[in-house]
Design goal:
Layout (H helix, E strand, L loop, with lengths): L1 E3 L3 H6 L4 H15 L2 H14 L4 H7 L4 H14 L3 E5 L6 H12 L2 E4 H14 L7 H7 L5 E6 L2 E6 L2 E2 L7 H10 L3 H17 L2 E5 L2 H5 L5 E6 L2 H14 L6 H17 L12 E4 L5 H15 L1
Helix pairs in contact: 2-5, 3-4, 6-14, 7-9, 7-10, 12-13
Bound molecules: 2'-deoxycytidine-5'-monophosphate (DC).
The site of 2'-deoxycytidine-5'-monophosphate has 14 residues, from helix 7, helix 9 and helix 13.
C-alpha cells in the first residue's frame, strides 16, 4: 500500500511566496472578467463536483459573495509545479532543495521513493532482475513520504530508512526495478497527488514527460559523466563510504544507459523543458539560473 503524509510544519514554516500569490490573483482577476470562462467553470463544477463546496460555488449567484468563494477555491486549486529531470549526479537534488527553500515550495526527490522500494527488495532477498518476483512484492511494500524539519524522509513499512537508501547496492537495484511497469504504476498516483496538493519541485527522470506533463516549469539538467562521477565520489567519501572513482564512473554509465534505454518512462528531456548543463557551474550558479527560469514561468 502506498501513502503520503505531510508534515503540517512544512506548510506552516514556509515563507509566503508573494510573487506567486500575486500571479495567482492576477490570473483570477482576468478570469473573473471573462464571462465565458466563468460559465464554463461553473458548468464543469456542477457536472463533476455536484456535492462539494465547489458545486455550491457553481450554484452561487454571480454575487460578490459567490465571487469570493470562487476565488478561495481557485487559490486553493492553482498549484505551481516545477519538474527537474536529469541523469544521476547532474545536481538535481542539491539544487532542487535549495530552490524549494528560496521559493517556499515542497521538494520531492522521487528517486528516494524508488530507492525505498529497491531497499525492500535488497533486504528481502528479492532479485531485482526478476521482474515477476519484484512485481509480486509491490502490493506489500508500504512506502511513505514524511517531512521532518522540512527534510524529506522515507518510511518503509513504518520505519525511517532515509539513511539506508543511498548505498551502491541499492542504487543499482533501483535502476533495475524502476524499469518495471508494476513499480512505476504503483508510484505514479502518489507523485501526482503530491503535486496536486502542493506547490512542489519534483526531481527525477520522467517528471516532465510522464508524471507532470502539465508542469508550468520544466528543467533538464545535464553534466559530463566525469563530473557527475566525481560529485558522487566526493559525496560518498564525505559520508565515510569507501569507493573507487573509476568504479563509480562505470556504474554511472551503466545507470545512464539503463535509465535512458528502458521501454517505460525513459530518462528523456521533455520537448518544452529548458536544458541546463551544470558541468562548469557551481551549485549557487545553477540555483540562481533555475530560480530565474522558475520565476519567469510564475
Ligand atoms: O535520482 P536518483 O539517482 O536517486 O534515482 C535512483 C534511480 O531511480 C535511478 O537509477 C532512476 C530511478 N528513477 C526513476 O526511474 N524515475 C524517477 N522519477 C526517479 C528515479
Amino acid at each position: 500500500m502506498l501513502d503520503t503524509r505531510f508534515c503540517p510544519e512544512a506548510k506552516i514554516n514556509a515563507k509566503i511566496n508573494y510573487k506567486f500569490i500575486i500571479k495567482k490573483i492576477e490570473v483570477i482577476r482576468q478570469l473573473l472578467y471573462n464571462k465565458s470562462v466563468i460559465y464554463l467553470t461553473r458548468l464543469f463544477l456542477i457536472v463533476f463536483f455536484p456535492h462539494t463546496d465547489a458545486g455550491a460555488v457553481a450554484n452561487a449567484p454571480a454575487s460578490f459573495c459567490g465571487k469570493i468563494i470562487f476565488i478561495y477555491h481557485y487559490l486553493r486549486r492553482i498549484r505551481m509545479n516545477i519538474a527537474i529531470d536529469g541523469p544521476a549526479g547532474s545536481g538535481k537534488s542539491t539544487v532542487a532543495k535549495l530552490l524549494a527553500k528560496e521559493l517556499s515550495f515542497i521538494y520531492l526527490d522521487t528517486g528516494a521513493i524508488y530507492r525505498t522500494m529497491a531497499l525492500y527488495c535488497v533486504r528481502n532477498n528479492i532479485d531485482p532482475k526478476n521482474e515477476e518476483e519484484v512485481s509480486k512484492a509491490v502490493p506489500s511494500i508500504d512506502v511513505k513520504v514524511d517531512y521532518v524539519n522540512l527534510e524529506q524522509h522515507m518510511l518503509l513499512n513504518g520505519k525511517d530508512v532515509t539513511g539506508q537508501i543511498r548505498t551502491p547496492e541499492v542504487s543499482n537495484a533501483t535502476s533495475v526495478i524502476s524499469a518495471y511497469s508494476s513499480v512505476r504504476d504503483a508510484l505514479l498516483s502518489m507523485q501526482r497527488q503530491i503535486a496536486e496538493e502542493n506547490d512542489v519541485i519534483m526531481d527525477g527522470r520522467d517528471i516532465g514527460t510522464m508524471v507532470l506533463p502539465n508542469a508550468q516549469c520544466k528543467i533538464f539538467l545535464t553534466a559530463s559523466v566525469g563530473v557527475r562521477a566525481k560529485r558522487r565520489y566526493d559525496e560518498l567519501l564525505e559520508k565515510g563510504t569507501k569507493c573507487e572513482l573509476s568504479q563509480i564512473e562505470k556504474e554511472i554509465e551503466e545507470r545512464d544507459y539503463r535509465d535512458s534505454h528502458r521501454k517505460i518512462a525513459p530518462l528523456k528531456k521533455a520537448d518544452d523543458a529548458i536544458a541546463v548543463d551544470t558541468s562548469d557551474l557551481s551549485i549557487e550558479e545553477v540555483t540562481r539560473k533555475l530560480k530565474e527560469i522558475a520565476e519567469g514561468k510564475m
